[in-house]
Design a protein that fits this description.
The complex is a heterodimer of chains A (287) and B (235).
Chain A: H1 2-31, H2 38-56, H3 60-86, H4 92-113, E1 129-132, E2 135-138, H5 139-161, H6 163-173, H7 175-180, H8 185-210, H9 218-232, H10 237-257, H11 262-276
Antiparallel strand pairs in A: 1-2
Helix pairs in contact in A: 1-5, 1-8, 1-9, 1-10, 2-3, 2-4, 2-8, 2-9, 3-8, 5-6, 6-8, 9-10, 9-11, 10-11
Chain B: E1 4-8, E2 11-15, E3 18-24, E4 27-29, E5 33-38, H1 44-52, E6 62-64, E7 67-68, H2 74-80, E8 82-85, H3 97-104, H4 115-121, H5 123-127, H6 138-150, E9 156-160, H7 168-182, E10 187-192, H8 195-201, E11 204-209, E12 212-218, H9 224-232
Parallel strand pairs in B: 5-10, 5-11, 8-9, 9-10
Antiparallel strand pairs in B: 1-4, 1-6, 2-3, 6-7, 11-12
Helix pairs in contact in B: 3-6
The chains are: A mainly alpha (287), B alpha/beta (235).
Bound molecules: adenosine-5'-diphosphate and magnesium ion.
């Protein structure tokens, strides 16, 4: 029973990892940008959630409705103001700049919020659970998973059935030719980053409700996100969800064997998978 | 002169230290069809990319209906009413045939061209509309590329080597369709390596050689020998 329980917890945890990963996957897909600051942006969203809940005295899930547009605005400005200037044939400048950004965000958070661990208080929601037979499933992890599935489904739908999604795919295919269609790629990239950080905002708030956070934890979230994206296969959003689930299950099963093995089990599973399937399970992007 | 739809003034183009175009002065009248001919590497594609805004220039070097557009980005040039059918077709592989056409209409200019009109011109595209654009034959892909440019309802359309790599029968289909396309007062620039094709559909021509205009004139009366000289650079 413990094992089945661990398996279910792992699947639900995978939802959170998919939320970490979806934004990364989106911006890599549209503009081939690897955002080293992604984990710190997740933590920034958690802190914004903290400020909003304290200032307005509202539930963190409600605060999400304020944090999402804030992060989206930050994303657009960041892309148009800085990141667009780093994009080109060379992959190094965006890596260096987002690395610098990561350091800056951490230091600003440290300055404003201090290094003390914080948590978003979701009240009774945190301990609520539903029983299925002998199993007890937490409402919060279930909700996180549901939100992750809904977000991935919406992103997928947006990508393949809307005019914005068509523009994203066109710019991703061929930037020059997309410009000929009247698409300003700088604006399209701005919109992609806005959307990615909107998803990141949800990820940050769900993270903050689930666990303690402090300014230094972004790096590990970045790694989890990367691992989920790569296990699932670049450029495939449903694959990213599967990648998140595989990572989550590996971690909870690892912890079931030995509580100290949670993270190690996740990384080892990731390494095994890329050893045998270097392009992940469902790659969509070539090169 | 407002009856010129496009003029270039001392148009130059560089790739790093390499200069690809030297002081080109070209003009296209409203409703006129001109041909740009020249050997491989003469600078034809570079000229098309410069006009379309993909290569940057000084504003005054390209004038569209009395408005300097040389410094505009390609997306801004597109909304002014200039469309390019790029060399090698360059469809969007992630988009279906119909999506490639729809995205061509994004600039939202008014005019005769829409999905319905295009499917009448090239019925095969309607049959294949939901397929990935990469699954089509070369000729069908070229029809999509032409359709994608037409969807913008441009006033000036640039065709860069639309017959390149296609079977003769397909080339004939496409060239037979050209008069219908260029009707309606649209101006057109046709870039070709096939000289007789280019001269047959155009009123005037420019022959480029190593980035310079080696010869220009009337497409119908020019002597073949003069063209061969300009084309290959024999003096
Ligand atoms: N992206 C590029 N980088 C460097 N040189 C280029 C590039 N594109 C074209 N050239 C050079 O510019 C010249 C003109 O090329 P192009 O305009 O493609 O000629 P054409 O279309 O007439 O065959 C050629 O010498 C070509 O090698
Ligand atoms: Mg060419």
């Amino acid at each position: 029973m413990d094992w089945i329980n661990a398996l279910i917890q792992g699947i639900l945890l995978g939802g959170l990892y998919a939320l970490f990963a979806a934004g990364l996957s989106l911006i890599f897909g549209v503009m081939r940008l690897v955002n080293i600051a992604h984990g710190d942006l997740i933590v920034l969203a958690a802190y914004l959630g903290l400020s909003v809940t304290i200032m307005l005295g509202i539930h963190p899930l409600l605060a999400m409705f304020a944090v999402v547009p804030m992060m989206a605005a930050i994303g657009y400005v960041l892309q148009r103001g800085i990141l667009n200037k780093t994009l080109g044939d060379d992959l190094l400048p965006p890596l260096l700049v987002t690395f610098g950004l990561s350091v800056i965000i951490q230091n600003v958070l440290l300055e404003v919020y201090s290094a003390d661990p914080q948590k978003l208080d979701a009240g009774t929601l945190e301990i609520a659970s539903i029983s299925v037979g002998d199993l007890s499933i937490g409402v919060l992890p279930l909700l996180t998973f549901g939100i992750a599935v809904a977000i991935i489904a919406s992103l997928h739908w947006m990508f393949y059935h809307t005019s914005l999604g068509r523009s994203f795919r066109a710019v991703s295919d061929n930037q020059d030719i997309a410009q000929l269609m009247g698409l300003n790629r700088r604006h399209i990239f701005g919109l992609a980053m806005a959307l990615a950080l909107a998803v990141t905002a949800v990820a940050g708030v769900m993270l903050g409700v689930r666990t303690n956070f402090d300014p230094s934890i972004g790096g590990a979230r970045l790694i989890f996100g990367f691992e989920a994206v790569i296990i699932g296969g670049l450029g495939n959003l449903w694959g990213t969800l599967v990648g998140g689930i595989i990572l989550g299950v590996a971690q909870t099963l690892g912890a079931q064997i030995n509580p100290g093995w949670q993270l190690l089990a996740g990384h080892i599973t990731f390494l095994c998978i890329i050893a045998f399937k270097p392009r992940g399970f469902f790659p969509r992007v070539s090169g | 002169m407002a009856d010129q739809v496009l003029k270039t003034h001392n148009l130059c183009a560089h790739y790093g230290d390499f200069q690809a175009l030297f002081d080109l002065d070209l003009s296209i009248a409203e409703g006129e069809v001109i041909a740009i001919i020249g050997a491989n590497g003469a600078g034809k594609t570079t000229l098309m990319r410069s006009i379309a805004g993909l290569n940057s220039n000084n504003a005054e070097q390209i004038v569209y209906r009395d408005e300097p557009i040389g410094a505009l980005r390609a997306d801004q040039v597109a909304t002014k009413g200039i469309a390019l059918v790029p060399e090698g077709r360059q469809l969007f592989p992630s988009l279906s045939v119909e999506e490639n056409l729809i995205i061509g209409g994004r600039v939202g200019r008014k005019g005769p061209w829409n999905l319905k009109a295009l499917y009448q011109l090239f019925p095969i595209l309607e049959e294949r509309r939901n397929q990935p654009s990469t699954s089509l034959s070369g000729g069908q892909q070229q029809m999509v590329a032409i359709g994608r440019a037409l969807m913008a309802n441009p006033d000036l359309i640039l065709f860069d080597e639309i017959s390149l790599g296609l079977a003769p029968v397909i080339i004939k289909t496409i060239y037979d369709a050209l008069p219908n396309i260029i009707d309606d007062g649209m101006s057109a620039v046709i870039v070709e390596q096939d000289i007789s094709k280019a001269l047959a559909v155009s009123a005037r021509f420019y022959c480029l050689q190593e980035g310079r205009v080696a010869l220009e004139g009337d497409s119908q009366t020019v002597e073949r020998e003069a063209i061969s000289r300009a084309y290959f650079g024999v003096h």
